[in-house]
Write a structure and sequence with these properties.
Shape: globular
Strand content: 5-15%
Distance between the termini: 42 Å
Helix content: over 70%
Order of helices and strands: HHEHHEEHH
Strand order of the largest sheet: 1-3-2
Length: 155
């Protein structure tokens, strides 16, 4: 297979991987009775820890009102709580609950463990190459997202 064919095959595998991620995320959201935006917010809370609503709005790229609606749904579902920031009483923090962490362990940890197990077949040099590729792919995707947003806002 030529280098050009390999690059095309990698692109196709990335497309299939993205579709697989989307299908898994949709299935997990349906399992929990949430929508994809709720799941994105929950993932942010689990990854970052307690966050102010404004921080969530920025991360989700949603208006404050839409973010409040998402937080309300997560609170009603038992996956998030609101509490005063102990360092700034005027600020409210949204925090993932133990139920959210249990869901993370039930649904997402097995995927991470299976992925980690699959990666054990690679040596350190190959893992460094994979990591470099993923960082490069992330950087390219971020840049293309920025360019698309600029084009869209210029319309």
């Amino acid at each position: 297979m030529s280098k050009e064919e390999q690059i095309g095959a990698i692109g196709q595998q990335l497309r299939l991987l993205q579709q697989s991620f989307d299908t898994f995320d949709e299935t997990a959201a349906a399992h929990l009775g949430l929508n994809r935006t709720d799941m994105r917010c929950l993932d942010i809370l689990l990854g970052r820890g307690p966050s102010a609503a404004g921080e969530l709005s920025a991360a989700l790229r949603l208006s404050p009102a839409a973010t409040t609606t998402v937080i309300d749904r997560l609170v009603r579902a038992g996956f998030a709580t609101r509490a005063q920031d102990p360092d700034n009483r005027r600020r409210v923090l949204v925090t993932a609950t133990d139920a959210a962490r249990a869901v993370d362990a039930e649904l997402f940890l097995p995927v991470a463990e299976a992925g980690g197990q699959a990666l054990t077949r690679y040596d350190e040099a190959s893992l460094a190459l994979i990591l470099d590729f993923l960082q490069t792919a992330f950087d390219v995707h971020q840049e293309q997202t920025r360019l698309l947003a600029e084009r869209s806002s210029g319309d």
